[in-house]
Amino acid sequence: MLNGKVYIVTSPDLVNAVNRNSKNIAFNPFIAILGKRITDHDEDTSQIVQHNLNGENGPGYVMDVHDRTVASLAPGQDLQQTTKAMLSHISNYFNTLTTGVEINLFEWTRYTVTMCSTRALYGTENPFNRNSRFVESFCHTYANASFRDFDHALNLLIADVLPRLFVPKGYRARMELGAAFEQYFENFVPAQSAAMIRGRHSANTRYGITPLNQGRLEVGSLLGVLANTIPSIFYTLVHIYSDQGLTSDIRDELEASGFVGTPEDIRQNPNLLAMPETCPLLYSTWQEVLRVHALGAGSRYILQDVTLEDTFLLRKGMVVQMPTAVMHSDVAAWGEDVNEFQPRRFLKQNSTSKGGFKQKLTAYRPFGGGASMCPGRHFVTLETMALAACMLSRFDLIPVNGQWNIPRQKQESLATNVFPPEKDIRVRIVTRQGLGTSKR
Fold it and tell me: Which of 60, 214, 349, 399 has its CA 20 to 30 A from that of 179?
């Protein structure tokens, strides 16, 4: 599967054609092959994962888990509860930010998002909250050492060539995290976890997956929870704070929509689920962050010969790659300013410009597309917007070196889409006077 011909698809129209052929050009085979290399679950679990992988004979494990995840993270009560749970934990980390404190912004973001997201999803008994070995302290910032080692080593783990020898830190981190989540599921308390985790645990139990392998599978799921989310939130904060005019305009928008004050104030806003609609500039900025910084590629496996648009024959057994960065930098789709960061690019009033809003969206794929579109996209959007609102409401961030520079990204994993920065940014915290005021 990984040694054959690769078809590179960059045309939005052809990408849509690939999406329409999800039965013949599928993502799930990658879950079966690469998933085992990532998580090291046993052969019995592999058989469960591969059974009815694409719904050949009714639902199977992968489709069941996917459908449960989509339902739990779609706009609705479950998503609102999970987002509120995340916000309820943020105050603990904001309380340490006072005027004069300096932090490494990416490291602080990584620790805060890791802790708040995992508590929201798994409850306070989750491995990150219980086991201090998973948390590494550095001055006023923190990093999850085990997950970081696992994430950094992911490409070599996927290669699966003597990982214990050639990537010992990543191998050990994977085993430690898997064992910790095994213990978590052995003592699972449904009422303390989010709907997504309850659904996955229910499916695991139904299909006979042991706690040991549930723990290993959950390590792979962490990639979806954390690996793309953390750098996305970091770059959102950097782009906003590096533009004083944008910072002021978004603060005005947040004040007008009532998303100001403490994290608890924002948590209690009745329009939390509607934040993308009530805060369009912040939402457009977030979308532009993903357009600029989502650099991965979507992959599909061809199950049957298929012809796209009556022209391009794709052979069974080969792989389709759809590089996000190519489509996100297409002048025909985005215009001559494609290489510029334009936070208002996705505002609805810009939809009448040449090319059109809807046409641009066909070339916009930070969450993939078709049947395999990321089911967590609504949660990460609300998580990012809510955390940005909390930060903008309470603090100014001043770069210690005197100026903002958007750091380049470094590719660390084939399984992630938004890569982390090559360098961190050290910033000084300044507490704003008068919560909810957009002008100081």
Answer: 60
Within 43-94, residue ranges assigned H as helices are 43-50, 61-73, 77-94
Residue 141 scores a pLDDT above 90 = no
Residue ranges in 95-207 assigned as alpha helix (H): 105-122, 127-130, 145-152, 154-159, 163-166, 168-186, 195-206
Residues contacting residue 74 through CB under 8 Å, at least 6 positions apart: 375, 378
CA distances from 339 to 145, 230, 255 (A): 34, 23, 31
Tokens of 244: 């004083």
Q: Tell me the DSSP string of 372-429.
A: G--TTHHHHHHHHHHHHHHHHHHEEEEETTSS---PPB----TT-SBPPBSS--EEEE
Domains contained in the chain, CATH given: 6-431 (1.10.630.10)
Q: How confident is the model at residue 157 (pLDDT cuts 50, 70, 90)?
A: low
Decide which of 177 and 270 is more confident. Answer: 270
Helix, strand, or coil (residue 41): coil
Does the annotation list 279 as a binding residue?
Answer: no
Computed over every residue of the chain, the mean pLDDT equals 86
Longest dimension (CA), the chain: 64
Q: State whether residue 138 is helix, strand or coil.
A: strand
Let me know if 88 is exposed, middle or buried by CB neighbors in 10 A (0-12, 13-18, 19+): middle
